[in-house]
């Protein structure tokens, strides 16, 4: 991952309809160690348009990581996940499902649709911030991703 | 002028006389034999026979007549039946015979001579020459007491059964092999709101709607194959009312074994059916409302989590960023807001867990309770270690249950026992025994216990016996236990003495397992 050596910030796409959660994620990322660019879309349709650089997203940057909520308006997270993972171009972008649901069937379904990991949003703020930091840390400093994922 | 017979003539006369004598002797012998025969018939007749004269005075009678009258012969001979008979009708019958007609008496009779009461049939007849000269009269007596008794008994029995059939609460119908109704009782008439004549000689089909005609048709086919099982049939009464019945048919066969129709007992189950339907409706309604309530609890707690998480997160963010930067009051207020929101989050989580019991992980299958118990113990590993708890158990059965729910039940009860421990390290013992059709589980501890007046309250959601500061928790654990036990069709209760410990009891129906 040469981009970080060059001092470029990592690109993260957050798919989240709740502005409160968006802000909390921003706060969490702010406290993290990795320099990042966060893009935010509010529903599933927007997310796919962003990833496919459609319409107003023609200039969108391909994200290095997607943080995906499950309960979204228009097209929910499960559908978005399914479309990403069945898209030859997008399927290698790691998708972290970040949701409030602890339900077994949601977890099972997410992994069946090839989510890269499933995280339940901690209700405690300190834990939430810690989780966002660990996501960053894990995916950008520990995990080895394929080169083309960032191209 | 005298005529002197010759020797030859005399000899001829002697021969003639001798011949006459022999003929006479033969006739006399024949007569004697005939007399003897009739005497024998007279004496041994199974009928009482009496011979009387033109005045009605008894001249002779046989043994059987004496038996019927219950009197000795000397009392009977010479008795005048016309003047001394006690029974007017009997006297008339005798007189009628003397007048040349047949006299008949049929009925109860008490003899004057023997004071014997019998049921009699008597026939008097008078014998006359062709010219009408009276020759004599006879009476034939038959004791018909036995016949009468049998007839009476039959009549009473018939009456008894008729009363029974007519007054019974079940409808009764007899139909012949051509499906024509040949008998109905009063109850069936009332059921169908029809008179007997409206039903008799008709076919059942005429009192059924199309759907039930089909049912009856099907049953008829079965009947032809020799199947005679009770079945449900709905009649249409004359006023249009639907009468739901259970038909219990019995075939009738004649002596040659030919099917001659059937005898049917018809039980009106309309009101029972209505009550059952009402009950089923109520049960469905209750189930629906329970489901709705659970759905509500789930949705409420699930959807409330989101805004609450926002409140909690942002008051925490406030505390994180601004603690010590505002004044002391602000710090305190923020602190209360943080604590309150955290507690609310716990409660909502608990409520969610409560509403999930049975809705999630509710599938039951055969499971070994010892393995479930070990699983629960493992989950409590840290707590058990920290409190040096000693947990023992007797042999536990294999039951058809939801293993994850039963595990949660064990975990909650054991966890509860550890949480409310006394001075000594907690000692908890679990046992199970088959009582009647249920497995009775006991979870006994040596903890602080509580006053028995609270025994019901502790199973109510969010009910606690201690202040928030004394023991952690929202008061959901035992409510979940209750829900799990009831989900499996059992009951849970508790006995406790302050300072002595607590025993929880719960049952799981054995039919759920083996």
Would you kindly provide a written description of the structure presented here, covering whatever features stand out?
The complex is a heterodimer of chains A (151) and B (514). With 151 residues, chain A is α/β, with parallel strands linked by helices. Chain A has helices at 2-5, 19-30, 44-51, 77-85, 104-112, 125-142, and strands spanning 10-15, 36-41, 65-68, 95-99, 117-120. A five-stranded parallel sheet of chain A has the order 2-1-3-4-5, with helices on both faces. Chain A is globular. The relative contact order of chain A is 0.19. Chain B is of the alpha+beta class and 514 residues long. In chain B, 24% of the residues are buried. The mean pLDDT of chain B is 86. Chain B is rod-shaped. Chain B folds into five domains: 1-31; 45-131, PAS domain (Beta-Lactamase, 2-Layer Sandwich), CATH 3.30.450; 168-268, 2-Layer Sandwich (Beta-Lactamase), CATH 3.30.450; 275-355, Helix Hairpins (Orthogonal Bundle), CATH 1.10.287; 363-512, 2-Layer Sandwich (Heat Shock Protein 90), CATH 3.30.565. The A-B interface holds A 18, 20-21, 24, 27, 100, 103-104, 121, 123-126, 128 and B 305-306, 309-310, 312-314, 316-317, 320, 342, 345, 349, 360.
């Amino acid at each position: 991952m040469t981009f970080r050596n060059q001092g470029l910030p990592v690109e993260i796409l957050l798919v989240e309809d709740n502005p409160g959660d968006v802000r909390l994620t921003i706060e969490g990322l702010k406290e993290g160690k990795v320099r990042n660019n966060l893009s935010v879309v509010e529903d599933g349709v927007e997310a796919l348009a962003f990833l496919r650089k459609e319409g107003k997203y023609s200039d969108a940057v391909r994200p290095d990581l997607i943080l995906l909520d499950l309960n979204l308006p228009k097209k929910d997270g499960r559908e978005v996940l399914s479309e990403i993972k069945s898209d030859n171009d997008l399927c290698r972008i790691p998708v972290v499902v970040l949701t409030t649901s602890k339900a077994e069937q949601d977890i099972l379904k997410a992994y069946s649709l090839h989510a890269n990991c499933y995280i339940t949003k901690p209700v405690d703020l300190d834990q939430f911030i810690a989780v966002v930091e660990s996501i960053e840390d894990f995916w950008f400093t520990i995990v080895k991703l394929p080169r083309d994922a960032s191209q | 002028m005298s005529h002197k017979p010759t020797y030859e003539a005399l000899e001829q006369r002697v021969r003639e006389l001798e011949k006459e004598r022999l003929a006479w002797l033969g006739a006399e012998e024949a007569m004697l034999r005939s007399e003897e025969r009739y005497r024998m018939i007279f004496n041994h007749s199974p009928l009482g026979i009496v011979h009387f004269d033109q005045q009605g005075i008894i001249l002779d009678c046989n043994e059987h007549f004496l038996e019927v009258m219950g009197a000795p012969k000397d009392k009977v001979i010479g008795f005048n039946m016309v003047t001394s008979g006690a029974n007017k009708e009997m006297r008339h019958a005798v007189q009628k015979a003397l007048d040349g007609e047949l006299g008949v008496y049929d009925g109860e009779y008490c003899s004057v001579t023997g004071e014997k009461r019998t049921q009699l049939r008597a026939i008097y007849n008078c014998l006359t020459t062709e010219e009408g000269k009276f020759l004599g009269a006879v009476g034939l007596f038959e004791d018909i007491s036995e016949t009468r008794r049998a007839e009476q008994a039959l009549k009473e029995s018939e009456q008894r059964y008729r009363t029974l059939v007519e007054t019974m609460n079940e409808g009764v119908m007899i139909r012949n092999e051509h499906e024509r109704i040949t008998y109905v009782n009063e109850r069936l008439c009332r059921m169908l709101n029809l008179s007997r004549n409206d039903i008799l000689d008709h076919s059942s089909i005429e009192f059924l709607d199309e759907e039930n005609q089909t049912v009856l048709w099907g049953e008829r086919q079965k009947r032809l194959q020799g199947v005679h099982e009770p079945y449900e049939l709905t009649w249409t009464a004359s006023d249009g009312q639907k009468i739901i019945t259970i038909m219990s048919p019995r075939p009738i066969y004649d002596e040659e074994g030919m099917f001659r129709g059937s005898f049917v007992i018809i039980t009106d189950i309309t009101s029972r059916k209505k009550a059952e339907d009402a009950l089923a409706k109520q049960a469905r309604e209750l189930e629906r409302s329970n489901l709705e309530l659970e759905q509500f609890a789930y949705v409420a707690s699930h959807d409330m989590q989101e805004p609450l998480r926002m409140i909690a997160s942002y008051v925490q963010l406030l505390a994180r960023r601004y603690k010590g930067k505002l004044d002391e009051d602000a710090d305190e207020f923020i602190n209360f807001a943080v604590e309150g929101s955290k507690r609310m989050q716990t409660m909502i989580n608990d409520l969610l867990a409560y509403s999930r019991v049975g809705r999630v992980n509710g599938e039951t299958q055969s499971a070994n309770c010892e393995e479930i118990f070990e699983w629960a113990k493992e989950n409590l590993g840290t707590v058990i270690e920290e409190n040096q708890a000693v947990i023992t158990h007797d042999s536990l059965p294999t039951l058809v249950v939801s293993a994850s729910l039963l595990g949660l039940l064990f975990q909650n009860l054991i966890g509860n026992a550890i949480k409310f421990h006394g001075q000594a390290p907690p000692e908890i013992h679990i046992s199970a025994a088959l009582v009647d059709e249920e497995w009775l589980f006991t979870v006994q501890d040596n903890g602080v216990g509580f006053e028995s007046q609270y025994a019901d309250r502790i199973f109510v959601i969010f009910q606690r016996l201690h202040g928030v500061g004394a023991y952690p928790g929202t008061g959901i654990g035992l409510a979940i236990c209750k829900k799990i036990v009831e989900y499996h069709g059992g009951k849970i209760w508790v006995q406790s003495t302050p300072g002595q410990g607590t025993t929880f009891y719960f049952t799981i129906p054995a039919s759920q397992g083996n």
